[in-house]
């Protein structure tokens, strides 16, 4: 009967990889992969921040586009007021009833929707549509107007209907 060879047990990664040149090659490949990933993320981030060789609207140019904290209070309230008007005039209120405060239409109740707080999500949904949400082109609704509507959605998420500026 043949004798069974004992199985090698490794104490750490260095001993499992074998010789130092093999270890260096494995670590080199690993670090190269990480470096390529970082460069790719930086490259793609440039396309997210800049569109058509111009920066996104001034209040959106910060890294945190989900927050209006960088916008002065008067300008923020002006955006909310204009966003409310746009929301009602663009047909949003037909599906998102009561200025977004009520359910019962075809769309969700936006003052309770966490998705309504995410500018990127709202922009994608408005531009591409999703059944039954119609798509709105930049000719129908500019990026600045879309930002104002998003400012309004963020406002109604945190405030009662009577707080909306008139």
Structure overview:
The chain has 166 residues and is an all-alpha fold. Helix content is 49%, strand content 2%. The chain contains six helices and two strands. The protein has helices at residues 13-17, 20-49, 73-89, 92-95, 119-128, 143-158, and strands spanning 50-51, 54-55. It has a two-stranded antiparallel ribbon with strand order 1-2. Helix 3 crosses helix 6 and helix 5 crosses helix 6.
Keywords:
single chain; 166 residues; mainly alpha; two-stranded antiparallel sheet; 6 helices; 2 strands; elongated
| Count of β-strands | 2
Provide the helix percentage.
Answer: 40-55%
What would you report as the Rg, rounded to the nearest angstrom? 26 Å
| Main β-sheet description | 2 strands, antiparallel
Mean pLDDT, as a whole number?
A: 75
Strand content: under 5%
Provide a count of the helices: 6
Low-pLDDT residue spans: 49-66
Order of helices and strands: HHEEHHHH
**End-to-end C-alpha gap:** 94 Å
Shape: elongated
Strands across the major sheet, in which order?
A: 1-2
Please sum up the structure shown.
This protein is mainly α. It has helices at residues 13-17, 20-49, 73-89, 92-95, 119-128, 143-158; strands at residues 50-51, 54-55. Strands 1-2 form a two-stranded antiparallel ribbon.
Topology:
Blueprint: H1 13-17, H2 20-49, E1 50-51, E2 54-55, H3 73-89, H4 92-95, H5 119-128, H6 143-158
Antiparallel strand pairs: 1-2
């Amino acid at each position: 009967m043949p004798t069974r060879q004992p199985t090698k047990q490794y104490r750490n990664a260095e001993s499992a990889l074998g010789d130092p040149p093999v270890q260096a090659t494995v670590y080199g490949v690993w670090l190269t992969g990480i470096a390529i990933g970082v460069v790719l993320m930086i490259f793609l981030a440039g396309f997210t921040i800049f569109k058509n060789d111009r920066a996104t609207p001034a209040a959106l140019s910060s890294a945190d586009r989900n927050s209006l904290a960088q916008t002065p209070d008067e300008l923020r309230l002006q955006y909310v007021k204009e966003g409310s008007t746009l929301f009602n005039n663009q047909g949003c209120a037909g599906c998102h009833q009561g200025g977004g405060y009520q359910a019962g239409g075809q769309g969700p109740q936006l003052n309770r929707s966490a998705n309504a707080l995410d500018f990127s999500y709202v922009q994608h949904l408005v531009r591409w549509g999703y059944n039954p949400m119609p798509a709105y082109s930049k000719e129908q609704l500019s990026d600045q107007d879309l930002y104002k509507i998003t400012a309004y959605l963020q406002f109604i998420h945190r405030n009662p209907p009577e707080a909306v500026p008139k």
